[in-house]
């Protein structure tokens, strides 16, 4: 959303003076702080106006970045007082600079709001949440539905595609092209590049989730086949680290740690050895690998399909619902 801002030095000063005569409370102080910030910004931009006007486009965009002006603000109209002529600082582009302006704006939005507009961040968040999920397929299905519902909501907001910035971005991403703001009817979208960008990110993220869902479904099918191939009808662990995994999954290890405040891993391992028969070294090493505190990379027992198959089968045999683990 593009914003055209008008600020007056005199107006801000009057607002501050009047607010100081009012009852002092949190709301009043917040208002005074805002007006002081507006006043300082107005004075600063007035002093920099000549520098701005001396620059040609697209170098004026650098001015915006250098002085930390929010990319949503495409222009400032500045006044010393009621009688003074407004000083205008405007970065809205001429047609030949539409693409330059778009690229700059996208870059700024991604830096300011990475969780909303950075596709790589969205993917990283997805991957980090998968291990915390009890079922990767179900988690992916929910994420895909949430993404698709949002796409549908934005798509229906304005029925005519030529007046819907989100759809312009979404369709451009699907077609594998950059939005063409010179095309008939698309110039409106220059004032809502945030929605254009959201449409692009949504299209790519939706496709990413669809691919992930197919992969997760294939992994689940492979895991089921592994369970059938391996004779794991009982819940008897085949290796000692599987015993530690099962104790961890059942919450027994964390229960002992919290109940008896066992921050010392050696003491914790000693207690578990006393009733499980598992060697202390195996307990410590496996637990550290699970929690990600081991110095040896790649030794997390969950990386083994055989171990994961054992845990899945164990919970099935015990009639328990597997809970997500905080690793």
What does this structure look like?
It contains 14 helices and three strands. It is mainly alpha-helical and 327 residues long. It has a three-stranded mixed β-sheet with strand order 1-2-3. Helix 8 (165-175) crosses helix 9. It is elongated. The chain starts with a strand and ends in a 9-residue tail after the last helix.
Quaternary assembly? single chain
Task: Characterize the biggest β-sheet.
Answer: 3 strands, mixed
Quickly count the domains: 3
Order of helices and strands: EHHHEEHHHHHHHHHHH
Short description:
The protein has 327 residues and is mainly α. The chain contains 14 helices and 3 strands.
Highlighted features:
327 residues; mainly alpha; three-stranded mixed beta sheet; 14 helices; 63% helix; elongated
SSE map:
Blueprint: E1 3-8, H1 9-20, H2 26-54, H3 59-66, E2 73-79, E3 87-90, H4 98-112, H5 114-117, H6 119-129, H7 136-157, H8 165-175, H9 193-229, H10 240-249, H11 252-259, H12 265-276, H13 280-291, H14 305-318
Parallel strand pairs: 1-2
Antiparallel strand pairs: 2-3
Helix pairs in contact: 1-2, 7-9, 8-9, 9-14, 10-13, 10-14, 12-13
